[in-house]
Amino acid sequence: MGREEQHDLEPFQRDPCLINKNLIMSLVSLCLAAGSLPASADSSVTFPWPDIPHVPEQYEPVPMPPGFKVVVTGQEGPVFADHRGHTLYTWPVRQLRNGPVGERKGQPSCDATKYTVNSGLMSPYPPGFELPEVATRPSCIDVWNIVVAPKDAKPVGKWTIVQRKDGISQWAYDGYALYTSVLDTQPGEVNGGHSGPSGEVGVRRPVEAPSMVPPQFQVATNLAGRMLMTSDNYSVYASRNDKPDKSNCTAKCLEEWKPIVAPAYAKPRGEFGIIERSAGIRQWTFRKQPLYTHIGEPFAKMYGADSPGWYNVFTQYTPKPPADFTVQASPTGLVLADRNGKTVYMFNCADDALDQLACDHPDSPQVYRFTVCGGGDPKQCLKRFPYVIAAKDAKSDNLLWTTMWIDPMTGKKAKAGQAGALHVWAYRGRPVYTHYRDKAPGDMTADQWGEFYGYRNGYKAFWLRSDFGRGG
Amino acid sequence: MNNDRNSSFGRAALPAVLGALLLPAAGAAPRPDVSAKDWAPPNGRIGYVLWHEVSWGLRETPNKEECPNGFNIGPREQFAELYPKDGKKRTLEETQLKREAEIWMPNTSPDEFPFHEATGKYAIGVNLDGKVSPEDFESDDGRKGIDNQLFRVVGCIRNYRLEGELGIITTKWRAQKPFNRVTFELTGVDSIRNDPDVTVSYYRTLDNLLAGPTGNYLPGGSQRVDAKWGKRFMATAKGRIVDGVLETEPFKQLLVPEDGMGDPAINIFKSAQLRLKLTPESAEGVLAGFLDVEQWYYAMNTSWATHHAAYGQASAASMYKALRRLADGYPDPETGENTAISGAMDIKLVQVYVIHPEQQ
To answer: Are residues A459 and A392 in the same domain?
Structure first.
C-alpha cells in the first residue's frame, strides 16, 4: 500500500514505515530546537511532553494470521489487535507469595468457573473467605473474551493454536493464549491492562508488536511515553545543539556524552539512520537526531535530561494530560498533579481469586477501594482520596484521558447529571484521585498506600520520572 | 539492583573541588592525630553521611527486661485469634478487608488485644523539652528527662528489635538505597573536641558510600548535595561541641527519607536535635525529636505491607492506638490531642566531603 492510500485509513491502520517524511523533518527540527515547557513555579520542573506533533512508533511488519492487525496505542505503543482493532492480551504465569497465578504456555486456565472464595495467595491472609458481590461476580471468560481460532486456522510465525479444556481452539502468541478485554470498546484502548509495574498481582498485559528498532536498542513504556533505551538498558539521549543528521558533540562534549556507535554491518532501518562522525565511525540517529548515552549514568535512569539542551528520546509520547493537570517535582522525581499541584494517584486492584479479576475500575466491586481509602466508608473516601473533578463540558482528545460520571457513594458509574454524581477525570477508564495529606506541590504521602505497596489494592502516584523509586 | 546516582558523576570536577577546599586528594580522609584534642577540620568544615540506623531508639537488654510481659503478637496471630478455623463461613469483607481497613483508617478505640509497652528506667534519646517528667527516661550516661515515648510503642515488637526485620534489613537499606542518603555538614568548627558555636546543615545527598573490602564504610568519600529533588530536606541549626560530643539546638524539622520495600516515604522529626560523639572519621549517637504521628505511621505502612510487617509481628492497627495514646508533643490547637511522639533514631555516620551545587 502506498503513501497516498494510507490517507484513507485510520491512523492506527497506516503503515508506519510510510509516514510523511515532511512531518518527520518538522518533528526533528522542533525536537532539536524546542526547549521543554515550564509547568511549575519550580524552575527545576520540566514538562515531559514536548510541544511537537504526535508521531506514532513504528513496528516491524511481522507475519500475522488473517484477521489480526497492529494498532499503535497511546500508552503501550504498537500492540496486536483483533479484526475490530481491539487489543490482544495474555496472562503469563507469575509467582505470587503463596503460589502461582496466570497461564503457562499452551495451557489456558481462564475459564467459566465462577470463583466464590479467595485463594489465599495474598499473604498473610488465609484462603476460603467469600468474595465481594459474589452473586454477580463474573467468570474469567465473562470479562476476558477468548480469541477463538477458526477450524481452518493455521499457525503463522509465533502465532499458534491451543486447545482449551472446554474444546475451544484459541489463538496464542508466543505460546500464551490470547484474549480481548470487555473494558476495551474501540481500537487503541488498553483498558484491560495495568499501568506501571505489576507488583504482587497476576496482571494481564497487552501483547506488544515488535518495535522497529535495531538490535542495539529497545523501547521501554512509562507514563510519559515509549522511551528509547539501549539493549543493555541505558537511556538514550539527543541534543538540541545537534542538527538533523549532524552531530555537534565533539571534544569536551564527548567527556560526558557517548555517541551510540553503529557497527560496520549495521544498516539504516525505519526511522533509524546512520551518520558518519569521522572516517569509519558511524553513529545511530533516530528521526535524524544523533543518539548518545550519558557517560557514567546508571542504567534505566533519566539524569541526562537535567543537562541543558539534552533530552531523552521517545519513539512516541503518551497523549498530553488535559489542561486540568500540572507536573510537579517531588523528592523522588516528576509526578503528575492536579491544577492545584496536588499529586495524582491511580488506584490498582486485583482480587485474590485464582482468576485475579480486576477490581480497580468503576464496574468492579468498590469495597476494596473503600477499605483502603476510608475504612469502608465512601464518605471518608471522598474526603481522603477525592476525585479529580472535570468541568461538565471537559473533553479529551485522546483515548487515555476521559471523563466519566461517578456516584461517589457507590463508586460506580452514574448517569450524566445524576443527583450527587461527580464528573471526574479518568485514565485508562479509571478515575484518578488526590490525597488529603498532601499539602504542598510534590508531596507524595499516599504513594504505595494500601495492600502490598499499592499494587494489590491501593494507590500509586502517577510517576513521570522516578529517580529513586520503582515508579519511573 | 544498585541504581544509585553513581559517584562517577561529577568525578571529573571532584579533584578541582577538593583542591579548592584545600583538602587532601580525593578518596583520602583527613589523617589527623585522632588523639589530638584540638584538631580542627580543614576550613572548619566536616561532613558525616548516615549509613546505619541501628534502631528506633531501642535500648535492648540481654534478658529483655524492658519487655516484662513479653513481645506483642502481629497481624497473622491477631487474624487467627479473631477468625479461627472453626468451620464458620465468613466473607472477605468482614475478615481481611476489615483488618486492612483498620490499618488504612486507624482509630483510637480500645485495642482488642493486649499491647505490651516497653518499660524501665533507661532509654536512648535526648531531653527534648528540658523537663524531667515521670514518664521520662534516664540515659545510660546519667542524663535525666530523656523523651522517648516511641520506645514504649515499638520496644516490644520484634520487627523493631535487632533480631527483627528492621534491625536486619533497614540498616542495609540505609546504606544501599540512594533515596535514603542524608548528610550532616558541620561548619565553623575550630575544634572537634570543644567548640561553643558551630553550624550544622542537613542535606539529602546523591552518592554511593565509600565501601571497604569487608562491607564496612570508610571515611573520605564525597557526597554531592541533591539540589534538584532534595531541596525540601535542607535544614540548618546551631550547635556546640563539648568534650567531643556535638549537641544541636532544635532544627525546626528534619525530613528523614525512608525507602523500605519499594517507593520512598519520609519521616518528620519536629524540634529535632542531634547528639553525636564525633571523631575526625565518624560520628555516632542519636537523632531525636518529636515524630509526627500520622506521618510516621503511614510512612511505616507504605514501606511495610502487612505481609512484611507480619514477619516481625508488627500490627499497625495496634501500634496506631499506642502511638496516639503515648504521643507527647505538638498538641492540636483545636482538639488538644498530641500530634507528635518523642523518639530517637540510634545512628552511625562516617566522614565525607560535602560537594555543594556550585562546586559540582
So the answer is: yes
